[in-house]
Amino acid sequence: MEGAVLRLIESVPGSPAIETPSAVPPAAKPMPAHRGMNKAWRWLALHRRELRALAIGAMSLALFLLCWHLLTKYRVTVYIRFINVPSPEMVFNSLMRAARDTKFLNHVFLSCRRIFIGFAIATTIAVPLGLVMGRFRLVREFVFPVSEVLRPIPAIAWVPMSIMLWPSNEESIIFITFLGSFFPILLNTLHGMTMVDPVLIRAAQCLGAREASIFREVYFPATLPYVFTGLTVGMGVAWVSLIAAEMISGQFGIGYFTWEAYSLVQYADIALGMICIGVLGLGASALIRGLGGIVMPWGKK
Amino acid sequence: MSRNLNRKLVAVAVTAAVHSWTAAAGAQTVVKIGIGTQDTTTNTVTAGTVIRQLNLLEKFLPKDGKYANIKFEFEWNNFTSGPPVTNSMMANKLQFGMMGDYPLVVNGFTFQSNPESASRLIAVAAYNQFGSGNGLVVHKDSPYFQLSDLKGKLVSVPFGSAAHGMVLKAMQDRGWPADYFQLVSQSPEVGSTNLQEKKIDAHADFVPFAELLPFRGFARKIFDGVETNLPTWHGVVVRTDFADKYPEVVVAYIKALIAANEWFRADPKLASEKIQEWTGINKEVVYIFLGPGGNMTTDPTIKPILIDAAAQDVKVLQNLGRMKEFDVTKWVDDSYIRKAFAELKLDYDAQIKSMANYEVKGEDKFCNKPITDPRKAGEVWVDGEGIEPFSSAACTLGAYSSLKAKGKKINMAYVFDTSRGIKLFADQAYYATGGDKTAVAPFLLKKDAEEHAAKNGGKVLSFEDALKATLSGG
Fold this sequence. Notes:
Chain A has helices at about 1-10, 35-45, 50-75, 90-100, 100-135, 135-150, 160-165, 170-195, 200-205, 210-240, 240-245, 255-265, 265-295; strands spanning about 75-80, 80. Chain A is mostly helical.
């Protein structure tokens, strides 16, 4: 437990904990003149892994861009065909044009808000439901079949039903993003509950813990890592269903932007919309992982 | 041209069939022909669906000369709108595609950046000279009866479609600002559901939705594209790399299109029933578009007024910042259709000048007189029996009541708008009385009916009241 706490503190750069002996590399003796440089050095040493990952990640993205550039520049045709695929430059031009336009930022903002609301509702329903389903067999046997039937239905198929179900279009859109994230969160929470070591439960019971305490002290913490896996996957699926959801909106959202570009056959804008959704999805998942690190300091990095 | 042409077509078909027997031997190379259709967009059916279902293309494909050792394989793909067709054509999965005027110019423009091939307009599927076919519908319980009632309301239309062009033109004609409506983009399937649920105040769409949604019982048409007076049409485009290599196939395609049009006109009732079977669009709706005096004229010739309309479409798209330079006249290629006409011994130059549709004709068995003014006539479709023509709206309503009284099931009755001559579902029209006691004048718009009634000292009746009135009057 002590190590876990340390790790948590270490991960906050510039915090006073850096002065604790275990965190200081042996070579770096604190000397007043080189204090600033040493601090930087230590920070580098501490974050070597992260930096390495960052560098490799940047390299892989650069390589992806380069491949894309070359494939489209020379219009490569090796069974798969890049003849009409827009080049990165074209997409970049689209981006520049869009960035000058406040409408585009509004698209992005509205999509983020829809995803956030849908995802928040999904989390507040799916996590408790998953916990209860995992604890009580009757609830599981009752809910599981329905959820398994609804789960494989793709977002786009929900479009007409969603319009009919909800009084306003904004709600219909949020409902579809909600559906996207709901099932992964539910299933992962449920899975987490089944993975809880029964020995721990028995031990808690022997020590006189009541149902509520067992839930709070044993089930919940043990399930949390799975819940966060569910949240990460659920966030991804919420973005996946965005285009289908925003077909309803008719004027705003990055999914709508992509859809409209498709209906006017503008390939560069389609690619821009795709990349935008990808990047926003990446950001959202990173946020959740970060949150997971804070909530579960004992978890592995 | 119909009877004469039919005979010629049969002759061509027979010789083609003979050739196919002789060519069956020998080593063959396979050439794939991908064709993108829009089954549910009723005014393209004779350019795609009918050709596919009746195997018309096979009848006209060249079988000798350089084609002796070529075997054609067809791939028919059905879409609900034009853009996916363009997308597949760009990817060379489809060589032929059909779509409405707006998606067509987008198709031609998009192909400008394709290094492999361009696209060319080779034929017209169907058109309406005055823009009917596109329309704007509201929920039947809504208090909106004309376009100006929708000021500040939420109106959806598929952006980049012919219906979008209609809405923009209507606003421009009236000098309304761009924010007169809250205009949003919704595809037909989304817009229809939204309208049914009253989430939007109005939905503008292309064929067949402005007729189909009222027919399905929850919508009312309050604006017809005819009021914009800008032609609307659907056409066929082809990839030039394919057309240059196999020009005879393109000519054969146009012959098949002509044959499909003739097939429809030879028996519109049977054809409508077949098209319902193939596409799921109700036969009564198919008939209002492609039947006699219908809202669409099937004529493959590429008429200058349609190309002018396309040039207008380009301007609208340019104003929206959706298109750069695009010259429609260079995109049209009438060499194939001229060849097809010549080979079928038809006169292209005469046909291109004709704006005539085929009309309701025959003998009115209720009022016992011949039909002299087809755009004042009417029709009643008796279930299981056939479509009966009547000489006037009053005779149509009278016949309707008497057929009903005899216990016949009636699928649909049709009348024509008195001022604009567009075909209407009788039960959706407004009827103005006045002047001549027995006469009723059907109108699409309540406003027009009210004006007519006021002028003649009559009143406006609904379909049910008009039925009663003709019953008591006649």
